[in-house]
Design a protein that fits this description.
Elements (H helix, E strand, L loop, with lengths): L12 H38 L20 E6 L7 H10 L7 E7 L4 H11 L5 E4 L10 H9 L6 E6 L8 H10 L5 E8 L6 H23 L11 E4 H15 L5 H10 L14 H11 L4 E10 L5 H21 L8 H33 L6 H28 L4 H35 L34 H20 L10 H9 L5 H6 L8 H13 L3 H4 L1
Helix pairs in contact: 1-6, 1-11, 1-12, 6-12, 6-13, 9-11, 10-11, 10-13, 11-12, 11-13, 11-17, 12-13
Length: 559
């Protein structure tokens, strides 16, 4: 007999225990993620029904413009020559008094192309350009650049914008006025990946961001969760950034030596470092750290547009950096976690959440099909856990579809068609996330914490203003044409299938089909794998065996 009543026969002990373990973890991940989403959605519906809508931010128009706070915007750029112009221009075009707004672009000394574009823009536009000196302490990366730029700021509110962004007109005013009203202490807006027409990976990326920024993030904030911040569209009270820098140093120690502080002093920069210069996901870390210290997060609905990576390799490297930074954050605070059970739980769970999701849903599905392949009927507790896990998979699919629908600006027919692609591509998308996660864990094990840069072209952000006053020269050149060809091919194949289905069992099984079904495909798994008399590889027969366990052995079913 097996342990704790989970199994009835020894060969399946490990399968059942693995199924229960991964299934329970997957259920926990989903309860953690979707409870705030459901609560947030219910509150929104109730507010709409009763007509008592409560705004999540302070309407800038309700505050006289002369009372709006001063704002410093930091834009860190490295190898961003094709896109930096649209970030600078859109930020300067945002609705905010020019005398209360300072935009600072931070670059590296060796990035000659980006520096040339910025110098050209400075002849026309009013912004500050600072090149981070090589002698400034630390390895070149985004948090190091932000810390350097912070040393020159003096405004009440500090904002962070990525070099590839096109900033929404109301972002600065919504964020700054909301913080200056006294609560919250820091906010972020909505990030949207606009190039859904570049293929299924970009389409799924937009659905993912729609789901996260329009459902999960505001739900987390409304439920009082500690918040992992995005790397852009974030705004902070200056006093809060200074305070969190001191608290991090007190908790973890200073990353600078006395010699480093002397160098900073000679450069005329303070040694205050709000962002952890050792972390490649400085946004994730600072958000959780601020929340754990009791600083209140907020959310504004202003949208910032970006372009997701076009190449799979760029996508993998970007995800690797994100996941690697989350593992690093967990390890960095392992011996000094936040105070308080709730904050500690959120800190640990948020650090592990990106890894738990893809791994566990993959494991639940794989274990489910292995059990069918082995012709094994799980015991009730295992069946219940697997059923709940698969039910949450359907829920995850639903919220991703809702996220895509809320984010996309395409015509209704296009959104309907692409929603089908989102549904079909979600599991392969998760598998890719799982692969990036494994890569991140491996690189963490090797101690490779360097920054992996993502290439941005800016082709799809055609709404931004350029020097000529016309639309951006980076107009879309990729379309869904490739996807339409794939859909056409799929239609042809479905048509061929429809023509064959009615007479699929009109003839009896042929000799080779009988052998596959009645002999090789019906053997125990161990015999299928080890049968020496048959020279054919076993994968086909393993798949056939699993298929027959699900649909039966009739000629129509097996064909």
């Amino acid at each position: 007999m097996g342990v704790i009543g989970l199994v009835s026969t020894p060969p399946f002990t490990s399968v059942q225990i693995i199924a229960v373990f991964f299934g329970i973890v997957w259920i926990a991940v989903n309860f953690y993620t979707y409870t705030p989403v459901v609560k947030y959605g219910a509150d929104k519906i109730a507010a709409h029904v009763t007509g008592q809508s409560e705004s999540e931010f302070v309407d800038p128009e309700s505050v006289p413009r002369e009372k709006w706070p001063s704002v410093d915007i930091l834009i860190s750029a490295y190898d961003e020559a094709p896109v930096i112009e649209q970030a600078v221009r859109s930020t300067l075009s945002a609705d905010y008094p020019a005398e209360k707004r300072t935009v600072t672009v931070l670059t590296e000394p060796g990035d000659h192309e980006t520096n040339a574009v910025i110098e050209d823009l400075q002849s026309e536009l009013d912004f500050v350009h600072r090149i981070v000196p090589e002698e400034y302490p630390g390895s070149p990366n985004k948090p190091r650049a932000l810390n350097y730029g912070f040393g020159f700021t003096d405004s009440e509110i500090i904002g962070v914008i990525d070099a590839e962004d096109v900033v929404g007109e109301n972002l600065l005013s919504q964020a700054a006025v909301t913080i200056s009203a006294g609560s919250p202490d820091f906010v972020h807006g909505v990030l949207d990946m606009v190039n859904e027409g570049d293929g299924w990976l970009n389409l799924l990326f937009r659905a993912e961001y729609g789901y996260w920024f329009r459902l999960v993030a505001p739900g987390f904030i409304a439920s009082g969760y500690d918040i992992p911040l995005p790397g852009t569209t974030c705004f902070f009270s200056r006093a809060v950034l200074t305070e969190v820098a001191h608290r991090r140093t007190k908790r973890l120690g200073d990353t600078w030596t006395e010699a480093d502080r002397a160098v900073a002093q000679n450069l005329g920069v303070s040694s205050v470092k709000p962002w952890d210069p050792t972390n490649v996901t400085e946004d994730f870390e600072i958000g959780l750290l601020l929340s754990s210290y009791g600083f209140e997060p907020g959310f504004v609905p202003a949208v910032v547009k970006e372009e997701s990576p076009l190449e799979l390799n760029d996508w993998i490297e970007q995800r690797t950096r994100w996941q690697k930074g989350k593992v690093f954050t967990f390890l960095r605070y392992r011996d000094s976690p936040p105070n308080g059970l709730s904050h500690r739980f959120h800190f640990i769970f948020q650090s592990l959440l990106p890894h738990l999701g893809p791994i566990n849903i993959s494991a639940v599905v794989i274990v489910f099909f292995i059990s069918r392949l082995l012709a094994y009927e799980p015991l009730p507790i295992v069946r219940t856990v697997l059923s709940l896990g698969l039910a949450f998979t359907v829920i995850a699919l639903g919220v991703n579809l809702v996220g895509y629908w809320l984010a996309s600006d395409q015509p209704r027919k296009t959104r309907l068609r692409r929603s089908c692609i989102v549904a079909a591509g979600l599991f392969p998308y998760w598998v890719l996330q799982w692969g990036a996660d494994m890569r991140a864990l491996y690189r963490t094990y090797l101690g490779r914490f360097h920054w992996e840069h993502t290439t941005h072209l800016g082709r799809n952000l055609a709404g931004s203003i350029t020097k000529s006053g016309k639309d951006s020269p980076f107009t879309p050149t990729y379309t869904m044409g490739g996807l339409r060809r794939e859909l056409l091919l799929a239609g042809i194949l479905l048509g061929a299938l429809a023509l064959r289905l009615p007479r699929l069992s009109a003839q009896s099984l042929w000799t080779d089909e009988i052998y596959s079904v009645a002999v090789r495909g019906s053997l125990p798994v161990s015999d299928v794998l080890m049968m020496p008399q048959d020279p054919h590889p076993p994968l086909y027969y393993l798949l056939l065996r699993g298929w027959m366990e699900v649909v039966g052995t009739s000629p129509w079913a097996v064909r």
